[in-house]
Design brief:
alpha/beta; five-stranded mixed β-sheet; Metallo-beta-lactamase, Chain A; binds zinc ion; 12 strands; 38% helix; single chain; 8 helices
Length: 277
């Protein structure tokens, strides 16, 4: 074989590897980094992607930012929040401590930043001082901001140890953080103490909140209340498969349309986690 042939073979191999890697990783890239912004109504903008989904609520007295995203998305969200805020104060709410929801906290110096209460040493070590919130919600906090009522409920353990949901009461819009991944296999991590049974309990508590018209999940498209039930059904099905391997194939088939994040989330990963957290 001469050098030209060797070069050609190596070139083809590289192209094939790069091609298949991009096919595998592109959905994940799109899912994590691509942003879409839409005005839900005059006061509320929902910004999907660029990290976790975020909300930007403009009230008479303040602007509320729900989850501050990853690097690029975080900077853009901050800019938009500042434009909308003008002289009004900015309040930040984190649904949980994971980086794709809190990395932008560093921009909001001097703002009130809320998070569900949990071991503060742990939170500080994980988030770093510049992203660390300054308000810790034990059970619930209700903010009355002019004509708006913003309710924060710390549901506790589920996806992490301090999963908080945020209800914009007048609109019936519920931000669930990563307690809901819409048609996406959820992220379960031992280091975050993810707990499927408690997670199901959190979803039950969400179902008991009256007047929810729209659900904004941590990742994936917003939708209606049925999304809460769909996430609950997913976990019940995965628990069934974890307990009875003969049902595993059928459950994987049932959720074949749910996005997998390569090497991170899939029905197999969820079943494996339930069997051995
Ligand atoms: Zn998360």
């Amino acid at each position: 074989m001469n050098w030209r042939k060797i070069f050609l073979v190596v070139f083809i191999i590289v192209v094939l590897i790069a091609g298949s890697a991009s096919i595998i990783f592109y959905p994940m890239y799109r899912f994590m980094f691509q942003e879409t912004s839409r005005d839900y109504d005059k006061g509320l903008t929902i910004i999907q992607g660029g990290g976790g989904n975020s909300g930007l609520l403009v009230t008479d007295s303040a602007v509320v930012v729900i989850d501050t995203k990853l690097s690029g998305g975080a900077a853009k969200l901050y800019k938009l929040a500042m434009e909308k805020a003008g002289a009004k104060k900015v309040i930040v709410i984190n649904t949980h401590y994971h980086g794709d929801h809190v990395n932008g906290n560093q921009f909001y110096k001097g703002s009130d930043i809320y998070i569900g209460d949990y071991d503060r040493k742990f939170l500080l070590a994980d988030m770093g001082a510049e992203k660390m919130p300054n308000h810790f919600v034990r059970d619930s906090v209700i903010l009355h901001l002019g004509n708006e009522t913003v309710c924060m409920y710390n549901l506790g353990q589920g996806h992490t140890m301090n999963d908080m949901v945020v209800l914009l009461k007048g609109r019936g819009v519920l931000f669930t953080g990563d307690l809901i991944f819409n048609k996406v296999n959820p992220f379960l991590k031992k280091e975050s103490n993810a707990n499927v049974d408690k997670w199901i309990g959190d979803l039950d508590r969400m179902l008991s909140i009256p007047g929810i018209a729209t659900v904004v999940p941590g990742h994936g498209e917003p939708g209606d209340r049925n999304m809460i039930t769909a996430m609950r059904d997913y976990f019940i099905d995965m628990k069934t498969a974890a307990a009875d391997p003969s049902k595993e194939k059928a459950m994987k088939e049932k959720y074949k349309d749910w996005l997998r994040l390569p090497m991170m989330t899939s029905p197999e990963a969820t079943i494996g986690y339930i069997r051995k957290p």
